[in-house]
Amino acid sequence: MSASTDQHSLTPEHPAYPPALRRWLGADAPPTLTTRGNLAIVQQPALALFSSSQCPAALILRAHDLAEQLRQQGRTVVSGFHSPVERECLTTLLRGTQPLILCPARSIEHWRIPPEYRQPLQDGRVLLLSPFSATQRRMTEETALTRNLVVAALAETVLVVHAAPGSKTEAFCRELVRWGKPLRTFDSPHNTNLIGMGMGVVAAGEYGTVERAR
After folding, report:
1. Lowest-confidence region among 26-40, 99-113, 198-212
2. Strand partners, 92
3. CA torsion sign, 100 to 68 to 198 to 169?
4. CA atoms within 13 A on the CB side of 182
C-alpha cells in the first residue's frame, strides 16, 4: 500500500481533523473519521454537491455542464456521489485532475474500493472519508443524513442541483439554511422551493463556461 492510499483514523485531537466539523456540527461532530488517500485534500476549500435522486432533465443537463466546468477549473469537490446525478458528475470529475473527497454513507474499513477510484487514489487526488465505524457496513437513511451533514460541514460552499419538494433533500437544505453556510442552486422553475428558502443562484460564469459543440 502506498502512502497515497494509507488508511488513517482521525480524532478531534489529530492535527488533520477538519476544524470545520466542530464549527458547524458542534457536539455532533464525528468522534472519529476514517480516511484513505491524500489527507492534504481535506484542508482545501471545497464545493459540496448534492441532488435529489429524482431530477428534471433540464437540471441534469446543467449538472453535466457544472461538472465539466468544475473539472476545467480544478475545483475541489466533496460529495457522497450517491444519487444518479451526483454519480454522473463524478464520472466527469474523475476524468480531470482536481482533488475529490468521496464520503460513502458507510464504513470504508475493509471496503472493496471501486476500480474507478484506484488510480486517482494512487495519484493522490482522491480522499475517501467516513465518519462510521467498521461495523457500519451498509447505508441507511440515518447514515445518509449523517454523511450529508459531514459533507456540508466540510465544504466552503454547498451547491444543490435539485431538491424535490417534500423530499428528504429539501428538509436537509432547510437545515443548511439555518446554518448560514453559503448555498447555491440553479435558477430554474424547478428550484423555486430552494430559492424561496433563501438559496442563492449560480451566477453566470461563477464556475466557468463550457463550449458546446455546434
Report:
1. 198-212
2. none
3. negative
4. 10
Residue 175 CA to residue 184 CA, distance in Å, equals 14
AA identity, residue 172? F
pLDDT tops 70 at residue 213: no
Pick from 96, 103, 150: nearest CA to 127:
103
Of 92, 84, 74, 86, nearest to 48 by C-alpha is 86
Tell me how far apart the alpha carbons of residues 120 and 123 are, in angstroms, rounded to a whole number.
5
Phi/psi for 101 (5° steps) reads -115, 115
The per-residue pLDDT for range 129-152, each reduced to its tens digit, is 999 987 888 888 899 999 999 999
**What would the grid cell of residue 137 be?**
457496513
pTM, entire model: 0.91
Task: Catalogue the E-assigned strands of 4-138.
Answer: 7-10, 33-37, 47-50, 77-79, 100-102, 126-130
Q: Taken in order 166, 175, 128, 60, is the CA torsion positive or negative?
A: positive
DSSP label of 202: P
| Domains observed in the chain | 3-201 (3.40.50.450)
User: CA 65 to CA 63: how far, in whole Å?
Assistant: 5
Cell numbers for 10 = 482521525
HEC string for 155-176: CCEEEECCCCCCCHHHHHHHHH
